[in-house]
Specification:
407 residues, 6-stranded mixed beta sheet, alpha+beta, 20% strand, single chain, 10 helices, 4-stranded mixed beta sheet, Creatine Amidinohydrolase, globular, Creatine Amidinohydrolase, Chain A, domain 1, 2 domains
């Protein structure tokens, strides 16, 4: 770990907001990629004996059709955005709130108003396209709709098919990685901008708002998730919420936050020292830093060393834990998660992750932490892009991860 620093990063150290030309290029790249995305989905359905597939997430709707819902619309949109895909048909549900948008943004798909009985609408579409086996995620569909589909089409079999869209989305196209990097730059600049305000007496809630404001003014169309700004013992809460507690000299301030740019998200965590740093706390920080670097080094060896496959998410998690030592306080959450159109996607890096090699090219977080209840929490999180075929590994988060004293 590099030595503790007091020279703080400046906003100008990081890339500026994306341009209109960037947005046009990304949109064109998506439009060009969608036929291949749909072909991959259809090929898997054919291989597994399915006549059609029902996808229900707004991330899948954007990826496969092009329709762009707002970041908080999924709970209120009902079944609008649900996709029905067979070998020769492609449909999207859109009620009266979204029909015009769907016709504009999902031009490849047939727009269907599901009415007041979406289960019957799905069954009707399936009958008209000769669907006998329909793949669907039972965990993502309300029981009443599931039962109504079976009632309205008793000759049809519903086959559990969970996570097909997110599995395909785990492999990232170059234009997707560019957007994640752009979202990282927005977040990097925002944190650099508010550093002079991270001083004793500032409250967690005040700093969370400042960070949110800077991201929105600096190019984010939305937040990837609510900002976490946690001070002192509150930093030991991995998913704590900012409150009115003021920062105090000699403690840490932990920021977990992300931006959204052109649909794609970033996620980073930095733990800063306020005013001064105790030697014991620096020692804990060094253990977290070393754990993160050990995990990234294991990936780099595979990428740059000629390996034919990446390590598994479980193995990379194991590397980080071994580096940090087996002691109270070492993180109990996963080491990392994929990211893209959703903040948490495949692949997983954790003790419960698959033993299969990580996909490539892909992007995921690496975020070990050390948490001592009622005393301190330290986490460092960066997004890493890996491309085994291209022999490239890059850290998309550019804000320094070595310890910094602020205030």
């Amino acid at each position: 770990m590099s030595e503790i620093g007091v020279k703080l990063p400046r906003p100008s150290d990081f890339a500026g907001p994306p341009t209109e030309e960037d947005y046009r290029r990304w949109s064109d790249a998506d439009e060009a990629a969608r036929p291949a995305r749909l072909a991959a989905l259809r090929a898997r359905a054919r291989a597994e004996g399915l006549d059609a597939l029902l996808l229900t997430s707004h991330a899948d709707a954007r990826y496969f059709s092009g329709i762009c819902f707002g970041p908080n619309e999924e709970p209120t949109a009902g079944v609008s955005g649900w996709l029905l895909i067979s070998a020769d048909a492609f449909a999207i549900f859109a009620d009266s709130r979204y029909t015009v948008q769907a016709r504009r943004e999902a031009a490849r798909a047939t727009v269907i108003d599901p009415g007041s009985d979406p289960g019957a609408a799905i069954a009707s579409w399936a009958k008209s396209h000769g669907v006998r086996n329909l793949g669907a995620d039972p965990g993502a569909i309300r029981h009443v709709i599931w039962e109504r589909m079976l009632e309205a089409a008793p000759e049809m079999t519903l086959v559990p098919a969970k996570g097909w869209g997110v599995t395909l989305r785990a492999v990232k196209e170059p234009a997707e990685i560019e957007r994640i990097a752009a979202a990282c730059a927005v977040a990097d600049r925002a944190l650099a901008t508010i550093l002079p305000k991270v001083v004793p007496g500032a409250t967690e809630a005040q700093l969370a708002w400042l960070l949110e404001r800077e991201m929105r003014q600096g190019g984010a169309e939305a937040l990837a998730f609510d900002v976490a700004a946690l001070a002192g013992p509150n930093a030991a809460l991995p998913h704590g919420n900012p409150g009115g507690r003021p920062l105090r000299k000699g403690e840490v301030a932990l920021f977990d936050f992300g931006a959204q740019v052109a649909g794609y998200r970033s996620d980073m965590t930095r733990t800063l020292f306020v005013g001064s740093a105790h030697e014991e706390d620096l020692g804990l920080y060094a253990r977290v830093f070393d754990g993160q670097q050990a995990a990234i080094a294991a990936l780099r060896r595979a990428v740059e060393g000629g390996a034919t496959e990446l390590p598994s998410g479980r193995e990379v998690d194991r590397v980080a834990r071994v580096s940090m030592g087996d002691a109270t306080g070492v993180y109990e959450h996963g080491l990392g998660h994929g990211i893209g159109l959703q903040t948490h996607e495949s692949p997983s890096l954790s003790r419960g992750a698959s033993e299969r090699p990580l996909p490539s090219p892909t992007v995921f977080s690496v975020e070990p932490g050390f948490y001592l209840e009622d005393r301190i929490g330290i986490r460092i999180e960066d997004l890493v892009a890996v491309d085994l075929a291209g022999r490239r590994l890059s850290t998309l988060t550019r804000f320094p991860s070595s310890p910094l004293i602020v205030g």
